[in-house]
Specification:
The chain is α+β, with helices and mostly antiparallel strands. It has 3 domains: about 180 residues, Sandwich (Jelly Rolls), CATH 2.60.120; about 45 residues; about 55 residues, Orthogonal Bundle (Arc Repressor Mutant, subunit A), CATH 1.10.10.60. The protein contains 12 helices and 10 strands. The strands form 2 sheets. A 6-stranded antiparallel sheet has the order 1-2-9-4-7-10, with helices on one face. The longest helix has 20 residues. The protein is globular and about 55 Å long. The C terminus is likely disordered.
């Protein structure tokens, strides 16, 4: 791996600072690509991370996945091949706000890239692995250079739509060719255990308001129930029931904070039959009641 170019890192910081003009989440001209500015320390907060990669500069983010803790900043960036619930703590530098970019992972594009890579180097991504739902890659010069160009085209709707996805595809390539690229390749292809669990997570994410049938999920993944449990926990650090509960509670918080739903309505929308059980589990998970979530909604979203 080449030594990180300080001039490129400074240019990346400048481009992020120029794009993330507002405190909090800044949307861009490309759907789901977001920029974030955080000027003050944000204590640990539960969030659901979609399949994405995230680059952060000026400070660091601390990811809590069950009992495991991971930190990333200017040396590494986060890759999330499966939808996972994380507790995130944001720690800016003393003199600068933390700046970050989050880009979704498109598995169809990644599959296409893997097939092209295999034409030229069949051994590059042959290792099939199972891992936790997150991992980290070194923030290389290639990734920084591509990300800088992406940030520049994001300033124009026209250029974002003409060039943006091509540049993102280029970044996917650099991630696949990185130190742990085989993990992303494994998640993208449907035959690996990792990919089958990722599909189950997507199913739960899309059907969180319904009951959970472990036998059906295991059968769909072509696994025994015991094997499914083991692989599921290896990726998420949670059991399927614990995972579904976190998805439901986070969705309910979004319904209340973003859409203004009452707690009882939000509870019903995510599959809770008992409002009192919902309130208990909500407070246990977030540390505040549903009513407090609505009252203090400004600054909590995201």
């Amino acid at each position: 791996m080449s030594i990180q170019d300080k001039k490129l890192l400074d240019e990346l910081k400048e481009a992020l600072d120029d794009g993330a003009v507002r405190e909090g989440i800044n949307e861009t001209f490309l759907e789901e690509v977001t920029l974030v500015r955080v000027s003050e320390h944000k204590p640990k907060s539960p969030l659901i991370y979609e399949q994405c990669f995230c680059i952060a500069v000026y400070g660091h983010k601390i990811c809590h996945l069950s009992d495991a803790t991971f930190t990333y900043g200017e040396d590494e960036f986060l890759v999330v091949p499966a939808i996972v619930p994380l507790d995130i703590e944001v720690v800016p530098d003393v003199d600068n706000p933390l700046l970050s970019i989050t880009v979704p992972l498109d598995f169809e594009v990644i599959q296409d890239l893997v097939e092209f890579i295999n034409k030229y180097d069949k051994q590059a991504l042959e290792k099939i692995s199972s891992s936790s739902g997150i991992y980290f890659e070194p923030l290389t010069n290639n990734v920084m250079e591509s990300t800088i160009r992406l940030l520049k085209v994001l300033k124009s709707r026209k250029e974002a739509n003409i060039f943006g996805k091509q540049i993102i595809r280029e970044i996917y390539y650099h991630i696949l060719m990185g130190k742990h690229g085989h993990l992303l390749a494994s998640a993208a292809f449907g035959e690996s255990d990792y990919a089958l669990i990722a599909k189950s997570l997507r199913f739960l994410h899309d059907n969180y308001d319904k009951g959970i049938d472990i036998d059906h999920l295991a059968k769909s993944a072509n696994m025994s129930v015991r094997s499914f449990y083991n692989h599921f926990k290896a990726v998420t650090a949670l059991t399927p029931v614990q995972y579904l509960k976190r998805i439901r509670l986070e969705k309910a918080r979004q319904f209340m904070v973003v859409q203004g739903e009452q707690a009882s309505s939000a509870a019903h929308m995510v599959g809770y039959e008992s409002p009192s059980q919902f309130s208990r589990e909500f407070k246990r998970h977030f540390g505040y009641t549903p009513r407090e979530a609505v009252r203090n909604s400004q600054g909590m979203a995201g």
